Amino acid sequence: MTDVFSPSHKDTHEQVVFCADAHSGLRAIIAIHNTALGPALGGTRFYPYASEQAALTDVLNLARGMAYKNALAGLDLGGGKAVIIGDPARDKSEALLRAYGRFVESLGGRYITACDVGTFSEDMDIVARESRFVTGRTTAHGGAGDSSILTAYGVFQGMRASAEQVYGTPSLLGRRVGVEGVGKVGHRLVELLREDGADVVICDVSEQAVERVRRLRPEVDVVADAEALTSADLDIFAPCALGGALDDDTVGRLRAKIVCGAANNQLAHPGVEKQLAERGILYAPDYVVNSGGVIQVADEIEGFSMERARAKAERIYDTTLKIFAIAAEEDVPPAVAADRLAERRMSEVGRVRGIWLGR
Hints:
Order of helices and strands: EEEEHEHHEHHEHEHEHEHEHEHHHHH
Radius of gyration: 20 Å
Helix content: 40-55%
Largest sheet: 6 strands, mixed
């Protein structure tokens, strides 16, 4: 098992909670990485992990990513994440979701949950019957609804900033963009890209997801798999499936000048960001450009306004350009620059929040 207590562990977390309820079949892990900026906010992933070790590793990585994502999104929220082990199509039930909600509630607001892979706004409504600390709810219950709307919009803004950096213009007109994964976020990104005049090529392991895009956008090209997509003649590669899309082999064959996508934890291992830089490929850090979704669900805490949330998500364009500027000034890859900027905010604001208020 990953040693979450060791001070040598590179991502020491504040709290890791293992949740089990035999009657409903719930097996879940909640990881709180950092609350320097406020309560930890992050979605609940419902996924059939091969092992509990795989689930633990994923939730620790995802919680860390949320801490950095929320910091760079300008939110007064820390980073956390939860995973439920199981097949959502087979194992999800009202009892299981409500049992999970009880565990979220037991943390007293240290962790606020939302949707992720395998969970939807309707599920969050059920979780909320047992916990006050739930966002990403349906519009019928005062929530923002599907957070993939602003996730895709934020990635689009990050892509525009990347194009500005590489090509001198934010327009994607005539650029060939490869989108790997056209699920909840990817298919919305395709729409935004086509509206801006980009040529789009896609792939997905789900034929159903591919057919949905084909029905709406028959002009979009389709390739067999991720290897064919990353080998294609692209201007921009957008990983929008699960993490680890950028490994040594992928980087070696990639022909795009820009990588900018919605998937979390795109870098398969440390050092990939340097390989991208050495090959002259601009990498827009995933947790920067895909933060539109968390901006959307976080806005529910104030009482949701799509206009306000969309305006915040639009600032991803400026944040991405700022990171590229820091990377150039400090001669580091953008991923390193993004980490430094996030850590600086967590440290500085976290220190201010340590001032005693006398109550």
